[in-house]
């Protein structure tokens, strides 16, 4: 059984910058032993020891990224994030040394038997994702991503006498009064307009840096490397293009009908971009209580869903492993991550009083429950089942919540379920569009943002 570190609550987990040099010295010593080991059992034991070393370091980096995203204005964690942005590609290179030793092990067959073939597929893909030569570029890529996160978190949109961020403006974007919707939408996009130069610079530089990394590694474009990074071991860009065609043929006609029905419900000839967020003339369904009340409903739902979800939700609450409310300077969006050394996930969200609060809570709880259920795996590579498969668990959990959804939405139950289901369909054309756009951008990296 894997032993995890004990802790009281997330905020009481101590953080100290890891001793990188000590890690490297120990890692190299163990790797030499691994290479010269004379039997598979010995290699397995060494692999476990090395995994523990890695997990300790990864956990420190995860704590930094969580605390930084919860408050991007915290100077201490901003500096630690900068440090991690620099050191992570270096660590990944050391891990790749282990991967190279692993796939060329004379005992590969026995190791595959014990650790699973997927670990070897991941190892083979990971070593194709970087080389010592591109480390400075990877560090630059990390910095740019952090800069982008900080920029979006910095949004202060003055609207309706309040200072809002990109999350808390959402209720106004789906307001029943069309003039309010339109004004809120303008206020939101004015933030992007005001920072257009900076956003364009970040985007252009990211595309350039990624293209350079890809080309130095021998790929034609970043797209191939992107697939490798996402550990897509069994399908290619050609398969995705085919999937896009299916969406066009089968889903787009449904999406068009859904939008036509929405326009009719709203009494509008045609929907514009600022009408799309509003589903019903009487208003979108909203949770019928404040964030504490939503959490209480979730607690009772998970208590009834299963013994496992009951125990797990209580753990997440007691250990304070959820940061759900939106605040100034908090990063946008929602995510779930895993603290390997402690064997627990962390959920991050930006509640804003819309139905999305329930979507994001159930979605991220699905991810969290999946990785918590995988915590016994001794290979950290198996905690998440790779990106696309991850969404099976999170999307399913959104729908597992349906029998209890009345608790959150009361009289709006039907409105919520229709919106949720149509939202899942409407998302598909949007997602493949964004995905195709990215393929295009990386195929033509010399085009500039304008
Ligand atoms: Zn997800």
The number of helical segments is 17
> Beta-sheet strand percentage?
5-15%
Gross morphology:
globular
Main β-sheet: number of strands, strand sense, barrel status?
A: 3 strands, mixed
How are the strands of the largest sheet arranged? Answer: 3-5-4
| Number of E-state strands | 5
Succession of helices and strands: HHHHHHEEHHHHHHHEEEHHHH
Which blocks of ≥5 consecutive residues have pLDDT under 50? none
Radius of gyration: 23 Å
Give me the secondary-structure category. Answer: mainly alpha
User: What's the overall average pLDDT, rounded?
Assistant: 96
Q: How helix-rich are the residues, as a percent range?
A: 55-70%
What is the CA–CA distance across the termini? 55 Å
Bound molecules: zinc ion
